[in-house]
Design brief:
The protein is of the alpha+beta class. Helix content is 27%, strand content 20%. The strands form three sheets. The protein has a five-stranded antiparallel beta sheet with strand order 4-5-8-6-7. Strands 9-10-11-12 form a four-stranded antiparallel beta sheet. A hairpin with a 5-residue loop joins strand 10 and strand 11. The mean pLDDT is 97. It binds flavin-adenine dinucleotide (FAD) and iron/sulfur cluster.
Length: 333
C-alpha cells in the first residue's frame, strides 16, 4: 500500500481547503467516507493518494421527506435510507436498489456520497497485475476490449474504456431526476445526477465533473407522480452480495384506463454511467402494459448498443429487464 497521511479536518471548510478530488486516480488527495470502496482500492494499490481526507462527522445524514420531495444527506448510510419507511412507500425503486446492493455489513457503513462515487468493478482496473487500463493509467490501453468483457458496458463505451458503472442506487436516482448538491471552495452548486458522471470518451480516468475540493453534500429527489409506482429489477450471477449484470429502474404514472401516462426508465450494468432512456420513456407514454407493447418500447434501448463478444447477451437481457420491471411497477397499487 502506498503510504498516506489521514487528515481529520475540524469542519467542512478545513476539509475543502485540502482540495481532495473524487473519481480520478492521479489526485494527490482524496476523500474517504464509509471507506468500503476506498480501503479495498488502497489495499490493492489501485489508488495511491498521499493524503486521505476524512469526511466523518462533517456531512449530515438526515433523511427528509417534504411535499417537494426527498432529501438525503450525503452521510446517510445505505442501510438508513433503505430502512426508512416513507422511502420504501413513496420511492420504492430507491429502497429496492439499496436492499439489492452489497451486504448488510457494507450497507451499515457505506454512505450516499460514497455510493455515487464508487469506482468501477472492471477486474482489470482493480488488479494492478494488468498494465493496460486507461482508467487507472491514462494511455496504457484497455485490457477489457479484447479480454474477458462479460461484465462490461454495451452503452456509452468506446475504444478507450468500456467499464460499466457499478452503483445500483445511482440508476434508481437517475430514473427519478435526482440532483446532487455539491460544495467546494468556490461555493455551492446543484447538478443533475445525469451530469455528474462523464462518458469515458478519450479520458476515462476522469469519471466525474467534480472539481478539486468539491464534495457531495446531499441528494435531492423531486416529488413526482411516477415515484410511488416504481421498481428496481436487478439481474445478477448469484442471489445476493453481487453487482448487477443488468438492472432496470422503471417508474410509471398510469391513467384511469390503466394505460401509461408517463414513464421513467434507466438501466444499470450496461452503461458506462447510469443510463437514462428518454426515447423508451416517450414510447411508453400512452402505451398499455401488455407485454408486446412494453417489448416494442423496450427494443429502443438497444439503439446504439455495442457488444464486445462476451457481453453481447446484455443487449437482449436489458430489453427483457425493462419489460419485467415495467410489469412489476405497473402492478403496484
Ligand atoms: C463486498 C462489496 C459488495 C458491494 N456490492 C454492491 C452492489 O451490489 N451494488 C452497489 O451499488 N454497490 C456495491 N458495493 C459498493 C458500495 O456500495 C460502495 O463501496 C459504497 O457505497 C461506498 O460508500 P462509502 O461511504 O464507503 O465510500 P468510500 O469508500 O469512503 O468512498 C468512495 C469514493 O467516494 C468518494 N467520496 C465519498 N463520499 C464523498 C462525498 N460526500 N463527496 C465527494 N466524494 C466522496 C471517495 O473519495 C471515494 O472516491 C459493494 C461494496 C463491497 C465492498
Ligand atoms: S474497461 Fe476501462 S477500467 Fe476496464 S480495463 Fe478498460 S480502461 Fe480499464
Amino acid at each position: 500500500m502506498h503510504p498516506f497521511s489521514l487528515e481529520r479536518p475540524r469542519d467542512l471548510s478545513a476539509a475543502l481547503a485540502l482540495r481532495a478530488q473524487a473519481g480520478r486516480n492521479d489526485a494527490p488527495a482524496e476523500y474517504i467516507a464509509g471507506g468500503t470502496d476506498m480501503v479495498q482500492l488502497l489495499q490493492e494499490n489501485v489508488r495511491r493518494p498521499d493524503r486521505l481526507v476524512s469526511l466523518a462527522g462533517l456531512l449530515d445524514n438526515r433523511i427528509e421527506l417534504t411535499t417537494q420531495g426527498l432529501r438525503l444527506g450525503a452521510a446517510a448510510t445505505m442501510a438508513e435510507v433503505a430502512a426508512h419507511p416513507e422511502v420504501a412507500v413513496q420511492f420504492p425503486v430507491i429502497a429496492e436498489a439499496l436492499l439489492n446492493s452489497a451486504s448488510p455489513q457494507v450497507r451499515n457503513q457505506a454512505t450516499m456520497g460514497g455510493n455515487l462515487l464508487q469506482r468501477t468493478r472492471c477486474p482489470y482496473f482493480r488488479d494492478t497485475g494488468y498494465s493496460a487500463c486507461n482508467k487507472r493509467t491514462p494511455g496504457s490501453g484497455c485490457a477489457a476490449i479484447d479480454g474477458e468483457n462479460r461484465w462490461h458496458a454495451v452503452l456509452g463505451g468506446g475504444e478507450h474504456c468500456i467499464a460499466a458503472h457499478a452503483s445500483d442506487l445511482a440508476v434508481a436516482l437517475v430514473a427519478l431526476d435526482a440532483v446532487v448538491q455539491v460544495r467546494g471552495r468556490q461555493g455551492e452548486r446543484t447538478l443533475a445526477l445525469t451530469e455528474l458522471h462523464r462518458l469515458p470518451g478519450t479520458t476515462p480516468h476522469l469519471e466525474t465533473v467534480l472539481q478539486p475540493s468539491e464534495v457531495i453534500t446531499a441528494i435531492v429527489v423531486p416529488a413526482h407522480p411516477v415515484a410511488r409506482r416504481s421498481h428496481y429489477l436487478k439481474i445478477r450471477d448469484r442471489a445476493s452480495f453481487e453487482f448487477a449484470v443488468v438492472s432496470a429502474a422503471v417508474a410509471l404514472e398510469l391513467q384511469g384506463d390503466g394505460r401509461i401516462r408517463q414513464a421513467r426508465v434507466a438501466l444499470g450494468g450496461v452503461g458506462t454511467k447510469p443510463w437514462r432512456l428518454p426515447r423508451v420513456e416517450a414510447a411508453l407514454a400512452g402505451s398499455s402494459l401488455a407485454p408486446e407493447a412494453l417489448r416494442q418500447a423496450a427494443s429502443i434501448a438497444a439503439q446504439g448498443a455495442q457488444g464486445r463478444g462476451h457481453n453481447d447477451f446484455k443487449i437482449e437481457l436489458m430489453q427483457r429487464a425493462i419489460v419485467r420491471a415495467a410489469e412489476t411497477a405497473g402492478a403496484r397499487a
